[in-house]
Design brief:
alpha+beta, Jelly Rolls, 5 helices, 8 strands, 37% helix, 25% strand
Length: 153
Amino acid sequence: MAKNKTLSKENALAILDKVALFDDLSRTDKNLLAEFHWCFVTYNPGDFLTDEGSLDKRFFILLSGGANVLKGQQEQLLTQLKPGEIIGEISFLTNEPRTASVIANTSSSALVIDQDLLDKLPIEVRERLKDQIILRMAQRLNRMNNRFALGHL
């Protein structure tokens, strides 16, 4: 498997402009985030973003392409992810092992965030990102509750 490449600052900024999760950020905030362009990583189809059971202290924001969430030895497909979705935030927040594997299903890119990057961001940007994480986790929980209530789990 080839080493994943990072995006240039210009490409990172162009992608930030296209992903709704970053709509609340000002142009200045997006420029600042794009300065960390080495955290914008590309993935080929079949590349792992996360590996079930691993201890990884990062989370990802899918920026382009798509990914499959797989669980167990039979790699049961749980869901397919699209740009703007957050991956691995539970392990990041709880320091628990990954609960599923996430594999790129097409050429994709993601913003890879660790605690070091969060610490370097201005508090306003950090808070907006945290707000989006909380919102998206609540939306995911609501979808799962609805699926459970309908007997689709």
